[in-house]
Design a protein that fits this description.
By secondary structure, the chain is of the alpha/beta class. It has helices at about 10-25, 40-55, 65-70, 85-90, 100-115, 135-150, 165-175, 180-185, 200-215, 220-230; strands at about 5, 25-35, 55-60, 120, 155-160. Helix 5 packs across helix 6 and helix 7 packs across helix 9 (about 200-215). The protein starts with a strand and ends with a helix.
Length: about 230
């Protein structure tokens, strides 16, 4: 039986990864991390989505220690969330949570070991991202290698969205007939607003821009997406 663990926040990217994983694996487990994040509604949304989409299990893990160590606008209510224009001017925006993906992928690997999963799936992306160093392909591959050495099992990190832009991520969701779910039921917004979000933060801007590009040039975007993910 093929099993996978999806690092699941209930946002556009991780939900798209879950939707795809459910088509590719016999059994899919979701793991969501409660790190005292500012937009805590994502935890409840992740609960609902994992159940309605059909995950085998959904584990919510308390990693509140990260909140103590990682100072970010996503972990501190007194640090304002930047709008997309000011974010684009920063080398590393204050929405970066240092060490988050290091911790999440490490714990997800331990969980994968427990449930005998062969893969850990994460929605990180190097094409359309905010400059976060822990979203890079080089980082993911290096940590994957370290985890294999450290736990003695060949657990594979999969990054289905790594080379897709946001328009292509929308196309992938549409390919699996889940556009409406992604658009209305997920939470990507840094200000914690479900669906189309606040429209002002960098996450909302990137999501809306990608949707616009997809809707206005579907054939080209779909062809590009299929080529990148090996569907052609």
């Amino acid at each position: 039986m093929k099993r996978a663990v999806v690092v699941f926040s209930g946002g556009q990217d991780s939900t798209t990864c879950l939707i795809q994983a459910l088509q590719q694996y016999d059994e899919v487990h979701c793991i969501t991390f409660d790190y005292g994040q500012r937009h805590r509604a994502e935890i409840e949304i992740a609960k609902v989505l994992s159940q309605t989409l059909g995950a085998k299990a959904h584990k919510i893990l308390d990693v509140g220690l990260l909140n103590e160590l990682a100072i970010s606008s996503l972990t501190r209510s007194n640090i304002p969330i930047p709008d997309h224009e000011s974010s684009s001017q920063e080398a590393l925006p204050n929405t970066f949570v240092p060490g988050r993906n290091i911790l999440f992928l490490t714990l997800a690997s331990i969980y994968a070991y427990q449930v005998q999963a062969e893969a850990v799936i994460t929605g990180v992306c190097e094409t359309d991202f905010s400059g976060y160093p822990d979203c890079r392909d080089e980082f993911v591959k290096a940590l994957n290698h370290a985890m294999i050495l450290g736990i003695g099992r060949n657990i594979r990190f999969e990054t289905p969205l790594m080379w897709l832009n946001k328009a292509e991520t929308w196309a992938l969701a549409d390919y699996y007939r889940q556009m409406e779910c992604i658009r209305h039921d997920t939470l990507t917004c840094y200000n914690g607003i479900q669906g189309d979000g606040c429209g002002k933060c960098a996450a909302c801007h990137l999501r809306a821009k990608g949707l616009h590009q997809y809707q206005h040039n579907k054939a080209v975007v779909i062809a590009s997406m299929k080529q990148k993910v090996g569907m052609v």
